[in-house]
């Protein structure tokens, strides 16, 4: 357990904090009001990563445009098999994969990173149009891959990460050996009949009732010193999901510090969404553009608020391609944390089918 140093000069920047620069009088006042900083996020994440049993390397990967992507690589010595790359969902970060990282890196290298604009990665200003924001995410993933020197990968994305992994696979299919979509956000078209719309999570309805059309997680920043308590109040389920590792509020603190920083990826997500459950550019309209020889597996929680019929619709749109859809009982949207043992077993089986 611990950190490894890269021997490749110039590729990795070790973990210095990326403190955000205030912009405007309100932003300069808010940091004093809200009890968060990149240093605090670094510290709580370190407590999470201490749980890893396998060797791991945690560092910033510097992109040519000066942005930095916070990256955790587990089992870097296992170079003979195709690596697994995991992309987190909205408001998440590398720490939320802690229930999965050791198991999924037992026989191959695993890479996970904070998406541009989230977690400890750089928080640039994104384009305000949905296509531009999506392209910025996808370009950052490809530039990260190039910088890392990964020829091809098994690409797994959860929620927003699933949407972006799909968009990436459309543009760079030669880099994807298998696409694994876990409760992916943004696939179906929004129904015209309100009765066909699944209710969003209770916590999101509560936030919307307070902040209306503001950034989705602005309430955490506006709440100031009460922000950490709001995470615990609205998402007590996260403490239960990770109870085997943490008896305290480590995970709630991590989620708070990931999302109480200046919004960047969150603003991009707002540009991409029509409302929380729907994308302005639905992926079902584009899934056929992925090259036919790219296999796709879609994993849903049986109790998710995401429309699980999407998997069958993807099968219909790709009749000459491998598409498998499945549901995991006892799991909701965060399948990987609700049923980690089953999830890990399923993903390991998929990975072993690649090599």
From TrEMBL:
One of its GO terms (cellular component) is mitochondrion. It catalyses: N-eicosanoyl-1-(9Z-octadecenoyl)-sn-glycero-3-phosphoethanolamine + H2O = N-eicosanoyl-sn-glycero-3-phosphoethanolamine + (9Z)-octadecenoate + H(+); N-hexadecanoyl-1-(9Z-octadecenoyl)-sn-glycero-3-phosphoethanolamine + H2O = N-hexadecanoyl-sn-glycero-3-phosphoethanolamine + (9Z)-octadecenoate + H(+); an N-acyl-1,2-diacyl-sn-glycero-3-phosphoethanolamine + H2O = N,1-diacyl-sn-glycero-3-phosphoethanolamine + a fatty acid + H(+); 1-O-(1Z-octadecenoyl)-2-(9Z-octadecenoyl)-sn-glycero-3-phospho-N-hexadecanoyl-ethanolamine + H2O = 1-O-(1Z-octadecenyl)-sn-glycero-3-phospho-N-hexadecanoyl-ethanolamine + (9Z)-octadecenoate + H(+). It comes from the Eukaryota. Keywords: Hydrolase, Lipid degradation, Lipid metabolism. InterPro entries: AB_hydrolase_1 (IPR000073), AB_hydrolase_fold (IPR029058). One of its GO terms (biological process) is lipid catabolic process. One of its GO terms (molecular function) is phosphatidylcholine lysophospholipase activity. Belongs to the peptidase S33 family. ABHD4/ABHD5 subfamily. The keyword Ribonucleoprotein does not apply. The keyword Hydrolase applies. It comes from Nyctereutes procyonoides (Raccoon dog). Lysophospholipase selective for N-acyl phosphatidylethanolamine (NAPE). Contributes to the biosynthesis of N-acyl ethanolamines, including the endocannabinoid anandamide by hydrolyzing the sn-1 and sn-2 acyl chains from N-acyl phosphatidylethanolamine (NAPE) generating glycerophospho-N-acyl ethanolamine (GP-NAE), an intermediate for N-acyl ethanolamine biosynthesis. Hydrolyzes substrates bearing saturated, monounsaturated, polyunsaturated N-acyl chains. Pfam families: Abhydrolase_1. Residues 83-338 form the AB hydrolase-1 domain. This is (Lyso)-N-acylphosphatidylethanolamine lipase.
């Amino acid at each position: 357990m611990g950190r490894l140093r890269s021997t490749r000069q110039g590729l990795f920047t070790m973990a210095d904090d990326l403190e955000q620069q205030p912009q405007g009088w309100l932003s300069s006042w808010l940091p004093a009001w809200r009890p968060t900083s990149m240093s605090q996020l670094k510290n709580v994440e370190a407590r999470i990563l201490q749980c890893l049993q396998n060797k791991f390397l945690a560092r910033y990967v510097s992109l040519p445009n000066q942005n930095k992507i916070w990256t955790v690589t587990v089992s870097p010595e296992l170079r003979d098999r195709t690596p697994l790359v995991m992309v987190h969902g909205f408001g998440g970060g590398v720490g939320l994969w802690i229930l999965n990282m050791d198991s999924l890196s037992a026989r191959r290298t695993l890479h996970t990173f904070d998406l541009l604009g989230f977690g400890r990665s750089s928080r640039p200003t994104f384009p305000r149009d949905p296509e531009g924001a999506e392209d910025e995410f996808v370009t950052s993933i490809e530039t990260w891959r190039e910088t890392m020197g990964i020829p091809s990968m098994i690409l797994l994305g959860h929620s927003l990460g699933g949407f972006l992994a799909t968009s990436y696979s459309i543009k760079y299919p030669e880099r994807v050996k298998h696409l694994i979509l876990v409760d992916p956000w943004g696939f179906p078209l929004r129904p015209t009949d309100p009765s066909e719309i699944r209710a969003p999570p209770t916590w999101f309805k509560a936030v919307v009732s307070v902040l209306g059309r503001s950034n989705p997680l602005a309430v955490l920043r506006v709440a100031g010193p009460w922000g950490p308590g709001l995470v615990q109040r609205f998402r007590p389920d996260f403490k239960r999901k990770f109870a085997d590792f943490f008896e305290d509020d480590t995970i709630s603190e991590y989620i708070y510090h990931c999302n109480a920083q200046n919004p960047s990826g969150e603003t991009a997500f707002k540009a991409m969404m029509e409302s929380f459950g729907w994308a302005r550019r639905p992926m079902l309209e584009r899934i056929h553009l992925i090259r036919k020889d790219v296999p796709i597996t879609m994993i849903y929680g049986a109790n998710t608020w995401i429309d699980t019929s999407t998997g069958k619709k993807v099968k219909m749109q790709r009749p000459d391609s491998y598409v498998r859809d499945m549901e995991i009982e006892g799991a909701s949207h965060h399948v990987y944390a609700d049923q980690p043992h089953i999830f890990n077993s399923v993903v390991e089986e998929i990975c072993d089918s690649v090599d």
